[in-house]
Amino acid sequence: MSIITTNNLHKIYDETIVPVYAVNGISLEFDKGEFTAIIGPSGCGKTTLLNLIGGLDQPTKGEVIIDGTNITQLKQTEIIDFRLKNIGFVFQAYNLIPVLTAKENIEFIMQLQGIPKKDRDKRVIDLLEAVGLKDRMNNRPSELSGGQQQRVAVARALASKPKFVLADEPTANLDSKSTNNLLDIMLKLNEVEGTTFIFSTHDSRVMQRAHRLISLEDGKVQQDQKIK
Amino acid sequence: MLLSIAWKNVWRNKLRSLIVILSISLGLLGGLFYLAFANGMVQHQIDATIKTQISNIQLHNPKYRLNNEVKYTIDSPDSIIKKIEEINGVRAATSRIKSTAMVSSAITGAGITINGINPVKEKNVTTLYKKIVYGTYLIPGKKYQIFIGQKLADKLNVKVKSKIVIAALDMSGNITYGAFKIVGIFKTESTNFDLSNVFVLKNDLRKLIGFPSEQTTEIAVLLNNNDQTDLIANKIKKIFNRAISEKKLDVETWVEIQPALKLINEMFIEYSMIFLIIILVALSFGIVNTMLMVIMERVRELGMLMAIGMSKLKIFLMIMLETIFLSITGGAAGLFLSWVAITVTHKTGIDLSAVSEGLNALGYSSFVHPMLGFTYYILIGSLVIVTAIMASILPARKALKLNPAEAVRQNV
User: How far apart, in Å, are the Cα atoms of B272 and each of A81, B49, B175?
Assistant: First the structure.
């Protein structure tokens, strides 16, 4: 069942001077429970495509439909609320809040959603166990390794129980051990909880473990291959 | 949640926050201390003027105040004083005969106001007897003694036991003369008062100018609390409503008698407030600059917050709260430091005797006790909050203009 649909999606930068076609007519469908990697050389449009799917950017043309909602037609305040309730984000640079502990970082998004403290506490502990960081829950990001920070970021992305998680080059700053560790956790969550993951990557280790590979070049889909 | 995260963010860069807090504290300390210093000078001047010169309330014949002519009198002063002293809040009242006159020594002369007083009753109303620098206060029953200011003594080149001659108009409008022996010399904070006022026994002046008994030119009323001046003045007006309506009596407060005193002092306070507001505006630029730096440093984090679904209003409030916390911490420290400095110097006083001549010429004391009412602390505290809110708007707006898609990838 398709959870995300992009129809003839375009994103053109500097339209009036020298137009750059970052995304050039991409039409894709993503099913629930997918573990998809979007690959391609730098500047091929991976991040732009993720930003458009995540509602962080507005397409020049085309539409993004998530679970029946055309997010390109939502107002700014509506799209922010939509992101909060439906989409989880993992960023290349982890982007945790440095003044909060691992536990507080994960809890933060649930506080934004207005989830009661009792429910928050249980969910945070479950997620910290899932990413193997229960014993580091009271540590601040500066006291964690890069791999540990990214695991907290994954837990934060899942805290709000989103329909899917968008991860923009999540392993770019990690060593092999941390990358494998993170992928194990993401695959486990994908298999056990059925979480949909869509990530952009250059990393061959990630590509090897993805269930679907979408290859982009010059803002267009070159190849869309289901591996598993 | 926002309160907690905003407070934690304030301490993200401790050194920078402490520098901002210190600058706010010192700015407020400077401004508030100046305000307290000015207020101390002003309040002391008002207090000294009331206690040594004019008292809180005065009663005259309405025509007397036009040219200070001694022929315009108040009838039955003793019965008026008795009724006034029954009013709750009145400390004491006394009657005086006041007339313009000339005083001459062997060297020179000067125009003065001669005050005929009852020294026993006058002591309850004015503190002039505490300002003696040479000799004594007027002694009841001892004839033709005079009590003069040091400035006038210097001008006339006279001292205690010297004789001086008073020339005044009697009740018929003829000039009359009288020789008086100086028993004491006083010095107040106002050289102008010291130069232009002399005091003699009421009976001596009465005899000199032929002033009728059972009459007076002025009744002075001292209150326990200056704040009650208007209230008690209204009560007195009510009691003597008939005499007032018949234009036989006029009741005036010290503000009406010396409007310039209140005006100049209000101006002094207003200038101090303007000075303080300028300090706050200057500080607000520092706060804005610091918060803009904070925003620039946290572009990626703010982008992330927008991306994960934190509303613009919450981001705006978070930045605003950070600015307010930073400012309020500095403000609270500044208010506390100011309170300590003002309390200590209020007790010890600040000696400005090096410039006493200039200050006394303007009617100010050369020993200043800075003071500031609690309402000023509340007012300044509120101004700090308003400044913080104003200073937070620009950085908070700057944060809202970030594009989350670009912000999350900054410096990646």
Answer: 50, 22, 49
Residue B55 lies in a domain: no
Cβ of B301 within 8 Å of Cβ of A56? The answer is: no
Give me the mean pLDDT over the B338-357 stretch.
88
Does the distance separating the beta carbons of A97 and B409 come in below 8 Å?
no
| pLDDT at res. A43 | 86
Same domain? For B235 and B303 the reply is no
Regions in chain A scoring below 70 on pLDDT: 1, 15
Q: B409 and A47: CB-CB below 8 Å?
A: yes
**Shortest CB distance from A51 goes to which of B9, B311, B405?**
B405
Compare all CA atoms of chain A with the CA of B411 and give the residue at the minimum distance.
A93
In this structure, the answer to whether residues B327 and B388 fall within a common structural domain is yes
Q: How far is B279 from chain A (nearest CA, A)?
A: 32
According to DSSP, the residues that pair with B101 across neighbouring strands are B112, B168
Question: pLDDT grade, residue B411 (50/70/90)?
Answer: low
Same domain, B328 and B240: no
Looking at CA atoms only, how far is residue A124 from chain B in angstroms? Answer: 16
The CATH number that applies at residue A100 is: 3.40.50.300
- Positive/negative CA dihedral, B10, B307, B313, A125: negative
Q: How many domains does chain B have?
A: 2
With 70 as the cut, is the pLDDT of residue B21 above it? yes
The H-or-E segment that residue A39 falls in is strand A35-39
CB contact under 8 A, A95 and B303: yes
CB pairs < 8 Å spanning A and B: 77
B343 is in which domain, residue-wise?
A: 2-49+261-407
Chain B hits for A77, CB-CB cut-off 8 Å, are 311-312
Q: Is the pLDDT of residue B412 over 70?
A: no
Q: pLDDT tens for residues B98-111?
A: 999 999 998 899 99
Min Cα–Cα distance to chain B from A48, Å: 8
